[in-house]
Design goal:
The protein is α/β, with parallel strands linked by helices. 46% of the residues lie in helices and 21% in strands. The protein has helices spanning 3-17, 41-44, 51-59, 64-67, 80-88, 106-111, 122-134, 136-142; strands spanning 24-29, 32-38, 70-76, 93-98, 115-118. Helix 1 packs parallel to helix 7 and helix 7 crosses helix 8 (136-142).
Length: 145
């Protein structure tokens, strides 16, 4: 498996161990992780710290040129908020662990020229399937149901 998707999965597992939703992400610039994060809605009571947003936050302020030359890896298809941040910062490529348990704003990203690689990774699916089955209330809160 790709080392960067593995790093995102490691972040998802870290979030799960902390009592949160198991979604992880890493921001990679020229073959080096510059930001990593995981969903922190439960842990920090945050309405915005999804995995991708946490990775962006942890990367710190970067010049636009860095974002335009980066790839973001995420274990789950990015929601509208995270997709908006990807577009805002001009990140040209997203590698997605899986999109079966949740289909985010992939069509919107593609319409704006973002390249998406959907891996349909079994480990990513299993993490989400188990979490949704054991914590449907938390999952439904996170996706607005």
């Amino acid at each position: 498996m790709d080392e960067f998707m593995q790093a995102a999965i490691d972040e998802a597992r870290r979030g799960l161990e902390q009592g949160g939703v198991p979604i992880g992400s890493v921001l990679v610039h020229r073959g080096r992780i510059i930001g990593r994060g995981h969903n922190q809605r439960q842990q920090r009571g945050s309405v915005v710290l999804h995995g991708e947003m946490d990775a962006l936050e942890n990367a710190g302020r970067q010049p636009a040129s860095v974002y335009r030359d980066s790839v973001i890896y995420t274990t789950l298809s990015p929601c509208s908020m995270c997709s908006g941040a990807i577009l805002l910062y001009g990140i040209p490529r997203v590698v997605i662990g899986e999109n079966r348990t949740f289909m985010g704003a992939e069509a919107h990203l593609r319409q704006h020229g973002v390249t998406l690689d959907v891996l349909d990774n079994a480990e990513c699916r299993e993490l989400m399937d188990a979490f949704i089955a054991s914590h449907p209330d938390v999952w439904n809160e996170d996706i607005g149901k």
